[in-house]
Amino acid sequence: MAKHDPWRIIVMILALVAFIIMLGFNAVAGAGSSGGPFLQNTGNVSAKYETDITPSGWTFSIWGVIYSWQTLWFVYVFSGFCRRNTDGWMYCEPAILPYGFYITWIINNIFNIIWLFLWDREYMVAGVIILALIAFTNYIVLLFSYHGLNTYFAWLNKYYKVDLWLIRILVQNGVAVYTTWTTIATLLNFAVVLTYNGGVARETAGTVVLSILLVEVILWFVAENFFLDKYVRYTLTIYPVVIVALCGNMTKNFNAESPSRNGIFIAVLLGISCLIFAVRVLLVVWRHLKHDVHQVSDSIPMSPKEISEKKKGIFV
Question: Residue 232 is part of which domain span?
Answer without folding.
Answer: 56-294
